[in-house]
What does this fold into?
Amino acid sequence: MPLSLTMNKKALKRGVRNVSLRPKLYGFTLIEVLISLVIIALVGMMLAQTSFQSVDQSDYLKRKLIASWVAENRMNDLRLLSQQGGEIELKEGEVDQGNWTFRTQSELKQQTAGVARIEINVYQPPESTSSLFTLTGYLPSSANASEEKVSQ
It folds into this structure.
């Protein structure tokens, strides 16, 4: 008789159950598998939502950066007009930049002796009512300049 079989019989007499006599059960139950799938699905949904928010935020920052460039370009145009002695034209305009269309609106906010405070609002999309970017700048004006000189 083999040695392992005699050891198993002795163990059975002592009341010890040997696991080698019973089939070993490995694996997961259906409930465990379903719970793990639900957890994986929830984590996947949270990751997808986070990545979509990141893409939206990146797009917003890109549009805001381009809007700041559009406002700075408009302010530089007004500075050049002022330095050349031309009339400052505060009018609305549309600019195509970065595959987007932006609407600029320039306003004279305050004018004191020698200095005019100009505010430039940039809107995107053009029909939007809230500005994407606002730039405030100061332009020199002549001592005899008045608000009538600034055309709107």
In short: The CA atoms of residues 79 and 139 lie 6 Å apart.
